[in-house]
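Budget justification aside, the reviewers requested a transparent look at the raw inputs and outputs of the sequence design task funded under Objective 1. We therefore reproduce one unedited record. The lines immediately below are the structure tokens for a 190-residue chain.
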């Protein structure tokens, strides 16, 4: 993307806060490179909208620098902040033109919402708790079946490792019952 600076961004921001004009010029150049790299991906925005998004991003970044909100951090963290601001400004430009519609696929945030993340964590915790309550041979059977291991191989491994002797049909039935038990116990809690 060409946005990786060959200089120390935290030091540059400290110089900007000390009113060093050269530092501000270097900072503007860095912000322009980051903006150009990010906004070039937003082909669904017109050139005017991209320019407006870039201007808004620069204003927001300069405001954050002057407020002292990003004076500390590594080059990567500061560049990440710059990229986030530019991306958010591009999203805002898209929303201004399409206020009622959904975001264009290239603008959608694929990260789960806090609610979805909490729900997923609760489901994973439930699955972990239920699976840990099973015997080792049941855990082994389900994990192997989920990973696509053949029933014959599972049967052989159960006999060899756990001294459990059951038929192939019983393995399939047992796996089905374990999956059903897992689903029911986690649906009740979720």
């Amino acid at each position: 993307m060409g946005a990786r600076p060959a200089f120390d961004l935290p030091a540059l921001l400290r110089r900007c806060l000390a009113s060093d004009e050269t530092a501000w010029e270097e900072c503007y150049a860095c912000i322009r490179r980051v903006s150009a790299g990010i906004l070039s991906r937003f082909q669904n925005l017109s050139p005017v909208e991209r320019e407006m998004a870039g201007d808004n991003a620069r204003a927001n970044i300069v405001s954050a620098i002057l407020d002292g909100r990003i004076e500390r951090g590594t080059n990567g963290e500061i560049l990440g902040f710059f990229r986030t601001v530019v991306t958010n400004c591009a999203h805002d430009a898209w929303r201004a033109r399409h206020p009622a519609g959904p975001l264009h696929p290239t603008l959608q945030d694929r990260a789960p919402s806090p609610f979805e993340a909490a729900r997923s964590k609760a489901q994973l915790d439930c699955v972990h708790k239920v699976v840990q309550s099973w015997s080792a041979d049941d855990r082994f059977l389900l994990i192997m079946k989920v990973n696509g291991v053949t029933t014959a191989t599972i049967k052989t491994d159960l006999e060899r490792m756990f001294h459990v002797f059951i038929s192939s049909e019983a393995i399939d039935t047992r796996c089905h019952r374990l999956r059903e038990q897992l689903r029911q116990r986690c649906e009740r809690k979720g």
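The radius of gyration is 27 Å. Residues 9-107 form one domain. Computational costs for records of this kind are itemized in the attached budget.
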